[in-house]
Prior knowledge:
The chain has 268 residues and is an alpha/beta fold. It has a single domain, classed as Spore Coat Polysaccharide Biosynthesis Protein SpsA, Chain A (Alpha-Beta Complex), CATH 3.90.550.10. Helices cover 38% and strands 14% of the residues. The chain has helices at residues 3-12, 36-42, 63-73, 88-99, 119-127, 150-167, 183-192, 204-213, 237-252, and strands at 23-29, 50-56, 78-83, 104-107, 133-137, 179-182, 218-222. Strands 3-2-1-4-6-5-7 form a seven-stranded mixed β-sheet, with helices on both faces. Helix 2 (36-42) links the parallel strand 1 and strand 2 (50-56). Magnesium ion (MG) binds at residues 109, 111, 113.
Amino acid sequence: MNKAAQRNHFFNERPPVRRDCSVSVVVPTKDEAGNIFGTVERLPSLGTHTEILFVDGHSTDGTIEQIHKVMAAYPEKDIKLMTQSGKGKANAVFEAFDAAQGDLFMILDSDLTVAPEELTQFYNLYAEGRADFLNGCRLIYPMEKGAMRFLNWIANHLFAAVFSFMVGFRIKDTLCGTKAISRESYRRLKAKHEDLGQMDPFGDFDLILGAAGMGLRVLDVPVHYRARRCGNVKIRRFADGFRLVKMLTSIFYREDSRYERTSGSGYL
Ligand SMILES: Nc1nc2c(ncn2[C@@H]2O[C@H](COP(=O)(O)OP(=O)(O)OP(=O)(O)O)[C@@H](O)[C@H]2O)c(=O)[nH]1
Ligand SMILES: [Mg+2]
């Protein structure tokens, strides 16, 4: 059975038992001091245990101090802090995945543009056995004015079209920061792709391509998308956009040996 058929087969056969588990919510932060308390206070409790793992990118605006304060204010919560060794969101997220203790890993951006409350539906979909990789999708509900800049909106649609062609099924929003993958799937992904996050500045492409390449059941989960209330955007639209195009081009032209061609469903 090829990977696309395998995926459809799984979609049609829901596992009969729930798979309740513990959750690690990885929260990348870079100069997000004004958003730390909101993140912790609004994050619902998920699964059998919720670990909140902040991974900081050498913030200079008091973010670290805010994280220490929130840890002291909520001693009953399992809040941890680590500092990434390198640069960029992908490096932060993958280092945090390596340290996380839960069974299901989720990523929640600390800009709070996607509400922490929405993670409940990610957990439920996973626990009900409906999917193995949950990908937030900001392009279904109406968006708050100013949430996504016009160029980002265009780029998102272009990347979605290219990705859908590459993975052999429809994926609508490749760059949403909110995602969930199990510890076990991440372990398999890492074994196959040692250099996760080296070409991809955010980690979104590595995760989607990796999930599709392993034949995981990938599900777009609609999320509401709001404008930032505090702090500034960290992505460098042109430099990071160029890196993403370069990554896709190298996979497309078979220069990147990490991806093998599969029968019928593209370049994974
Ligand atoms: N640890 C770490 N976190 C980062 C880094 N760059 C961005 N982040 C965090 O990653 C999340 C996403 O960054 P944003 O600046 O919101 O970028 P974006 O969401 O891609 O861009 P917008 O769609 O315009 O909001 C935020 O929580 C940032 O604080 C980094 O280099 N290291
Ligand atoms: Mg953002």
